[in-house]
Amino acid sequence: MLFGVRLANEIYPPWRDAYVQYEVLKKLLKENVIPVSEESWTPDDETNFVEALDKELEKVYSFQTKTYESLSDRLATIEKSINNSVESHQFTEDDGKALESDLEEILEEAKQLDRFSRLNFTGFTKIVKKHDRLHSKYQVKPLLQVRLNALPFHSEDYSPLLYRISVIYAFLAENLTGADATAASASAKLSSVTNSENSDYTTYKFWVHPDNVMEVKTRILRHLPLLVYGSKSHGETDDAEAHPQHDPTITSLYFDNPNFDLYEAKLQKNDVSPSLRIRWSGKLTDKPDITIEKKVIDHTSSSGDYIPDERIEIKEKYIQQFITGKYHMEKTVQKLKARGSSQHEVDEYQKTVTDLQDFIAEHDLQPVVRTVYTRSAFQIPGDNRVRAILDSDIVFIREDSFDKDRPVRDPENWHRSDIDVPGVENPFSILRKGEYVKFPFAVLEIRVLNKGDPTTSTLATTPGTSVKSISALVPTKRHGKWISELTKSHLVKEVPKFSKFIQGIASLFAEDDRLDLLPFWLHLLEHDIRQDPKQAWEEQRRRIQESKQASVESDKLRLLTSRSSPRVEPVSSPKVSAAGPSSAPVSSGTAASSSTPVSETTEVAPTDEDASKKKADEYDDDSDLDDDDSDLEDEEDLQHLSRKARGKKLLQRLAFWPSSGPRLEGDSEDEEIILPPGVVKPNTLLRQSGPVNVEVKVWLANERTFNRWLHVSVLFSALTFTLYSSVNKARDQTTATLIAYILFGITVFSCLWGYGTYLYRLKHIRNRSEMHLDNPTGPIVIALGLLACLTLNFVANYNNKVLHPKNPKMGGESLNSTVY
To answer: pTM here?
Structure first.
């Protein structure tokens, strides 16, 4: 379907005039009348097109901004009315029902606004590509990038808006009878706009510039070891451990049809979005294990649940027959029966085979895109709570046979044989231009287990914040801190909805008229994602400040929700989060991530079931098949978070104090370490068990500091006794005596401080401690003491000379013009 036809069919009628006038811009290109010579396209034509394009951009951006602000204002009015009604105890069931229709209207407009942004972004991108192809002398794409940065209608984050709606629905569900069904219905609608993911894991995705890949790896390696894959292939399963692969090359062959139905379902997050791929590791000539995998995400479910995965292992020689439906894995079924497998297992296997073949036939699927990348996986063996995956050197290759006259792949073969020929070291060298695209960045994925006991792994949220943030990620006390520091740093750029499958289709088939939608992140590929560390920090602060301001009304309503609920739910009730009964129940799939620091949770050792599940997924990871991010996160109590934040701010102000611990946190020494069974923490660290070998200059530096303190003490003692011996000659003997005593106290303090500092540093040097040895307390006390003496001396002299210049009681016209 041509994009112009698609745009006309999907326009939201009330907003018809606000959409991009795609056909008008297309006519300005003179696509159908331009001759072979480019002389007919004049500078005036170019000016007219650019002006029309800019005018359309301004129109779309203005409408999108105005509509979003209108929805936000309408929600603010509803929140304010609810707050006032609850505080005055005048909120009735009729008031709540009157709000339901308004909320449904706002929710529907939010969904339409999201589709509005997608369609217009695709329209602008396609018309500019068409222009640059027809009139290559004038390139408009750079101008479009600049204008999209200035008018970012396509990058609006709807998560704060949806969160506020979900809070109101939760309030109505708690306070109105019969409102649960409405809230559940709204939950499904919300999940269709936001991201959904497996309830077991929450996944966060980032782009990493090639210059920063090594630094990102070293940061992760401090906390998670590198997984080493066994080089398994047919006939070599027993020797897999003898051929380890540190960074294996993974190949995924994605399926779709000529209409790109799977692509659009995944991009738009339709009710059901299936994915199908063939996957193997290493070179195909080495006969690796090959897996056919299908995964379906049900976005209509309130939690975005996954339909159970369907996957089978298959030999290369049977794949083409399997795809065409001529081979039904009869030999594998016979082997299962020969091994003594139960009839139930055999039936399940046959059902999986049938479902996969029916799915391929029903949707007319064929291999379309091959994705090749190098994978580095980081995970503690046996512990699947946190996993980091870094995919680099990503290449997308066309594998389709859409063009029957000039197919890229032989329709009678399931893959391109030209790049899988044995002995070819660089298969990309034989590919033609346009048949492959190299992705400019590496992709970092962090997966966090968020299922099971409430104390195991929790994710906290703060209302009104962006889904692009990961600062709410607190899987365990051990890992939460370093993950938050890494994801907030300048080394990565978060792209929450990124998908290799979507990126591969969009980059290789963007010019195809059958491709009606493009992902929002596509224009970011033209920019350098590297950031200055200071600039990244300031940007993070700005986002936090904006999210706090946007969530004020939602916070009030959320607290009122928990206070005004007439029902008392048990602890196990799904309406009460792990944070406690004061947390507002929020529909699954609607809570956004937090952009503020959150508390850390208790770390619990993984269960045997989790360990076995991890072992099964250790090699057959499906992270690049499922490229959806989840907004489903457990909530923390808002008041509890506020107290934590205030406590952290106080500690930050007192960070200079020695008792607050070491300031260097590179190795996260304050993290809790869970030891394996049978392992006991030693009383003496290994670095402290041997003889103390410290450089001579360290001892001398400590002694030199002690000598300087002694020198200062001698100077103070000389000054003290000199002043005390001349008290009788002072004009104000009382003040002079007081100053002498203060100086004597400073002298004693200086001696004790110098000796105490010497012993303190000596102790930490012998223990090889990482504590900072500097301490400004002593110099500050001495400085304050001297300041007090000078102040007393000034006051006494001022009193003698200015206020009482000839007062006999004050000493008259003594030659001594000072106190001492």
So the answer is: 0.51
